């Protein structure tokens, strides 16, 4: 890497670091390239040499956030398996979702960007964000599929509910797309469990139950996350 390339990389890294801090302090809707440029120490027009637009910066931050979250989830499962190579699918699921919750607590602004209210005037481009954004759910789907193969997975929430043919076809296609055997129930149970994880974490971060509802909201979330494994049939 040439000195010029190193200098550019440092500036791009500084821009992202400042952008994350502004998200924490002001929220995504208030993110301003002009304000970031001022803090970097360059004229506002010069920032476009590094970031084509505010929308492009938001997309980069979303991809970075999803990637960091997925890496944390993967490290948690790998750490569990390093300690116990025979850890059950339920324990693997819980290791992943607890790591997700811990990440959200450490980085509430990033969680809000990924799973909170949409940013006015911005739509994340799926062709750039889907791969990173589905990594955690795909990891969970493989855990549920492993349990199914071992005969340890039983459908709970969708038991007795007929999956409409069109939906079943889409679920089977999604299953095959991530390297599974096309079992629509595995995908349905995974998505339901993961949706519950997102809702539980978001309700804690946004204090949706109020500060006085639970004496220890952290204990409530830890308890409630156990139910997500049950929802996934584990």
Automatic annotation (TrEMBL):
Record Pfam families: TetR_C_33 (PF13305), TetR_N (PF00440)
Highest taxon, organism lineage: Bacteria
Record InterPro entries: Homeodomain-like_sf, HTH-type_TetR-like_transc_reg, HTH_TetR, MT1864/Rv1816-like_C, Tet_transcr_reg_TetR-rel_C_sf
Keyword Transcription regulation in annotation: yes
Residue span(s) of domain HTH tetR-type: 9-69
Molecular-function annotations in GO: DNA-binding transcription factor activity; transcription cis-regulatory region binding
Name used for this protein in its record: TetR family transcriptional regulator
Species of origin: Serinibacter salmoneus
Source organism phylogeny: Bacteria, Bacillati, Actinomycetota, Actinomycetes, Micrococcales
């Amino acid at each position: 890497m040439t000195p010029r390339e190193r200098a550019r990389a440092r500036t791009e890294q500084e821009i992202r670091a400042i952008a994350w801090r502004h998200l924490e302090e002001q929220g995504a809707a208030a993110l301003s390239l002009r304000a970031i440029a001022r803090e970097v120490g360059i004229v506002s027009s010069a920032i476009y040499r590094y970031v084509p637009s505010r929308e492009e910066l938001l997309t980069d931050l979303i991809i970075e956030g999803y990637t960091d979250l997925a890496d944390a989830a993967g490290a948690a499962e790998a750490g569990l398996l390093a300690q116990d190579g025979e850890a059950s699918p339920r324990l693997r699921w819980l290791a992943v979702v607890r790591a997700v919750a811990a990440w959200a607590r450490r980085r509430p602004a990033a969680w809000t960007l990924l799973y909170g209210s949409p940013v006015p005037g911005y739509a994340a481009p799926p062709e750039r964000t889907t791969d990173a954004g589905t990594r955690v759910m795909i990891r969970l789907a493989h855990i549920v599929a492993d349990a199914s193969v071992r005969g340890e997975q039983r459908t709970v929430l969708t038991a007795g509910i007929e999956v409409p043919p069109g939906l079943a076809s889409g679920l089977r296609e999604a299953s095959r797309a991530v390297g599974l055997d096309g079992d629509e129930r595995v995908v349905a149970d995974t998505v339901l469990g993961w949706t519950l994880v997102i809702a539980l974490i978001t309700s804690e971060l946004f204090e949706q139950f109020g500060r006085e509802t639970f004496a220890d909201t952290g204990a409530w979330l830890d308890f409630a996350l156990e139910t997500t494994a049950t929802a996934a049939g584990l």
